[in-house]
Write a structure and sequence with these properties.
single chain, alpha/beta, 336 residues
Amino acid sequence: MTTESEALLRDALVWDNHACMPLRPDDDSFLPQLERAHRVGVNAITLNIGFGQCSREQHLAVLRAFRRWIEARPEQYCLANSVADIERAAGEGRLAVLFDIEGMALLDDGDLDLIDELRGQGVGWMLVAYNRANAAGGGCMDDEDPGLREHGRRVLSRMREVGMIACCSHTGHRTARDVIENAGNPVIFSHSNAAAVHAHPRNIPDELARACAAGGGVVGVTGIGAFLGEGTDYAELLARHVDHFVQLLGPAHVGLSLDYVYDQQELIDYLQGQPETFGSMGAIEEAIRMAPPEILPAFVDRLLGLGYDRGALGAILGGNWLRVAATVWEGRGGDR
């Protein structure tokens, strides 16, 4: 790590917008590992509370457990539900913690009031479909993508009302285009890499990335090896995808969401237990090849080596997520 990258990570708002702790509400043994991200400069982190066909009860139990653990440690952490919360936590040297949901399947029963409850409890974004179709729309692993369904339109409308960001990672490409056109707010691909750099069903084509950016959204690069391409030089692989998107979209529309899984045995169990959900994503050796949070200094060094200035790096490391949050959560109209 160079002196310059160390200073950047110290001074910038650094937001890892998707991370995976164990989805076991009775087991908080992994949560102290949040310090791994905090130590390398992360000021805000978004934790997943459920994916795919996880039930409403599972999502809520995990959310309660995470919130309880964080609330018990106010010196180190801050439950964040606004831009001001994130900025205050960063200024105080604490880690701001938010939440996300991977897929709208928990709303298949039509109870949209749950969206209000989730947003009030710190869920900042929700993606449409986790690999497979649900009542809202199609997944990226489906043979056929039905596009955004009427139920999905109703969900997006309620999300717009309560200020929750719509995400199209894991979502079918036709559905994603429909979401971008109908969300009424900037949309994100929270953790989706470039298909032009590495072909994979989970990676997105340039035309979808352009559509996202045209609406004021952000594409977040993920550190999962299967989506990065071959190799274990994670800093170089991440920089390759980030640089592709920056050349395509400009630095104002690119972010970082490592998608690091802190309990890899739980991931292996999911892959083995739910082959219908993961399909070709289910190769275990590929799924557990992933960039840890400690890669951030080397990643910043790579972008510095490519000529990125402090302004561009600050935007990529967290400023762009903050801008979308201000627009969608608080209706500031993208003025940040």
